[in-house]
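tl;dr need the bound structure. longer version: we got a ligand (heme C) that a collaborator sent over and nobodys looked at where it sits. i said id run it. heres the input, straight from their email, havent touched it
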Amino acid sequence: MTKTFLRSVLTLLLVAGLNSCSDMGTDPKPPVQTPNAPAVTQVFPDSGFVGDTVFIHGTNFGTAQGSSTVQFGSVAAAEILAWQDTAITVKIPDGAASGAISITVTVGGSESNSAAFTVRSVVPVATISFAADVEPLFVSYGCTSCHGGTNNLFVDSYAHLMAGTSLHGPVVTPGNGEGSVIIQKLRGTASFGVRMPQGGPYLPDSLISKISTWITQGAHNN
Ligand code: HEC
């Protein structure tokens, strides 16, 4: 009698046990143990600008953020977009130092390994001046000696330069440096004629790019 009773209790327990296994949602939480330290295995992408989204992959992040934190160097991420045990989606926080930094995840006071990350900085592009940066090049590279009254194009003043030629129209297209005829002539990529200055010596790439940037910035009479 007792044996049978015990057996049915055991069977009940077993069935209950099996049931609870298949019903993860209502499973009682295991006793709280010291959590395994979080570990970062991959950060994607490995560089970005402030405000960009970054995916941090790893283990033991916990199923929800709670009091856990993500550090970008010395600055904690303020915007967490998603938090899972093996992945966190986060925005690069304002104030994160630019350059090479470390990302760490801290869960329950336990800090992960450091993952290398580069915060890219927006380098302000200097404004190129026509009078100070561009026009002197037309003189020093001899453009004005041929284009100051001959060859249809005049590069001796802003107004003349912008007027272009009667043959091919404007040589400067404000807002589009590389698409401008004058840049294509300087690079030797124009669909007509020869590379300028005719016969050389040609401008180094850095100076052609400077003129191109001035045009892309609007080709102002600045
Ligand atoms: C030795 C004389 C000479 C020099 C120096 C010279 N050019 Fe020219 N350039 C010409 C001749 C000739 C043409 C017309 C034939 C051609 O397009 O290749 C021309 C054409 C051009 C055109 C095309 C104009 C059009 O028809 O749309 C541009 C733009 C131009 N030159 C810019 C320059 C610039 C900028 C410089 C200085 C860096 C320069 N050139 C120096 C002789 C010269």
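gonna send this back to them w/ a short note. Confidence is low (pLDDT under 50) at residues 8-26, 30-34.
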